[in-house]
Backbone:
RNA sequence: GGAAGGAUGGCUGAGUGGUUUAAAGCGACGGUCUUGAAAACCGUUGUCAGGCUACGCUUGACCGUGAGUUCGAAUCUCACUCCUUCCGCCA
């Protein structure tokens, strides 16, 4: 949610942001008009309320019955006026809130301007320590079936297309990665949380998923339960409606959750393997910081995500998203993409964003610098650390051997329970 | 799923239609006293939104949420949510 004061004072900056993101600025004038109307009506109704409050107290003290009745009559009509004004006000505030909630976040000055993903900027490529695959590499789905790690048929039987079952070493490789990454996050200073995988509507609104991304969410038909599309949603709301102690900032969290997304996936794209599905696992990083610390925390989180790939020995690159490709709530985003020789593709495994106070405003997450000081909104940041299926793919394809077996990266061996995954 | 009870400020807790401007206590913060601390005493102590030549003053809203009754609601009515306890069911 943008600050209404910002929209009021710097409408041109907001308009420029909307254009840079490739959106329409049509609602802006309506917002400004409604904002003026709102304040006018609010002032009128408050003056009437003040009158009624005063007179009502006088009525309580009056002894003359005729006088008393006369004043009651007067106040009855004042009450009617207040009711009418507040009905108008309610309508205006609803419209204003709907329009404002649909506005995306302002851009960080470092975010490059561009219309679409072709204008994202590759900042750097880091070569991994894993030995290069010198033979014709296989894709992970082929490897997975051959080594009995992935069962596509039974996944489809259970839940339909894009679902799969991980068998034996496949399941262990994923579980090992999750456990190892959570332990790594712990060392990096993130406190682990185990979270609800279903949340209520308000929780999704505060994280900026609703109302805009309603079509991408799964929810229960009878009760107010929505499946989380990312751990970012419950993590944002962990401190919703709280005023945090400045001594506790920054607060860093990590959490493992499955993620559920209703995506309209085109038939020809990403059909092979486990790259994209309606359900996937992820370890998430999240931070609540003072405004002046969020830039540094963004760099820390990016570095922490990078450390994961470096320790796994994988080659990756860092991409900075341009304005047209940036997420709704983000001011600035780095994507981490890992090289996977089987599918011969850079796979997005992490996205690290500084959200500024955008979610904090929606969720009411504040802090106070000192006793008696005004409350201020915190900044929040989120980053994947990392998305699982694609990390699994990258490990499988990068560490495959000519004989069809897969070497388990050093750091994962005690988590997975073997050095090499091979045909039994 | 059934039954009963409850929800008031940072915490405890009073208030059942008009001196409530939400009592009192605790805590926290500031001060006096002290070599220092404690004790004692004095003072301060929420959030949100308006307005005002504005580091302050002022108006309104907020007693779980939303409606309603009334000149006036923490207080009365209705609906809902959540919590606690008991029963049932269950991993």
Residues:
């Amino acid at each position: 949610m943008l600050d209404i004061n910002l929209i009021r004072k710097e409408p041109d900056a907001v308009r420029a942001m909307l254009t840079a993101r490739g959106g329409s600025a049509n609602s802006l004038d309506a917002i400004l008009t409604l904002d003026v109307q709102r304040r006018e009506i609010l002032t009128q109704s408050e003056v009437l309320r003040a009158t009624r409050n005063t007179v009502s107290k006088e009525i309580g003290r009056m002894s003359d019955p005729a006088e008393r009745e006369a004043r009651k009559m007067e106040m009855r009509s004042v009450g009617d006026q207040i009711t009418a004004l507040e009905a108008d006000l309610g309508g205006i505030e609803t419209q204003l809130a709907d329009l404002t909630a649909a506005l995306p976040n302002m851009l960080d000055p470092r975010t490059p301007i561009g219309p679409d993903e072709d204008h994202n900027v590759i900042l750097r490529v880091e070569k991994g320590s894993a030995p290069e695959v010198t033979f014709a590499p296989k894709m992970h789905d082929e490897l997975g079936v051959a080594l009995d790690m992935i069962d596509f048929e039974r996944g489809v039987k259970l839940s339909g297309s894009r679902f799969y079952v991980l068998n034996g070493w496949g399941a262990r490789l994923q579980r090992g990665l999750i456990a190892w990454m959570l332990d790594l996050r712990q060392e990096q200073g993130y406190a682990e949380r185990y979270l609800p995988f279903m949340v209520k509507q308000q929780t999704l609104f505060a994280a900026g998923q609703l109302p805009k991304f309603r079509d991408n969410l799964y929810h229960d038909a009878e009760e107010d339960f929505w499946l989380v599309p990312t751990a970012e949603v419950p993590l944002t709301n962990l401190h919703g409606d709280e005023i945090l102690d400045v001594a506790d900032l920054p607060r860093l969290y990590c959490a493992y959750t499955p993620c559920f997304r209703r995506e309209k996936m085109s038939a020809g794209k990403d059909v092979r393997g486990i790259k994209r599905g309606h359900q996937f696992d992820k370890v998430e990083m999240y931070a609540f910081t003072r405004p002046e610390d969020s830039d540094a925390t963004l760099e820390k989180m990016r570095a922490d995500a990078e450390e994961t790939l470096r320790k796994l020995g994988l080659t990756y690159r860092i991409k900075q998203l341009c304005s047209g490709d940036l997420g709704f709530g983000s001011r600035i985003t780095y994507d981490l993409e890992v090289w996977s020789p089987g599918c011969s593709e850079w796979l997005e495994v992490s996205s690290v964003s500084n959200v500024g106070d955008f979610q904090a405003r929606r969720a009411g997450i504040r802090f106070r610098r000192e006793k008696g000081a005004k409350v201020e909104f915190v900044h929040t940041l989120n980053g994947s650390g990392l998305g699982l299926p694609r990390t699994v793919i990258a490990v499988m394809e990068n560490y495959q051997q000519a004989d069809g077996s897969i070497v388990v990266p050093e750091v994962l061996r005690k988590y997975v329970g073997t050095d090499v995954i091979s045909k039994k």
Summary: The first strand of chain A starts at residue 121 and ends at 126.
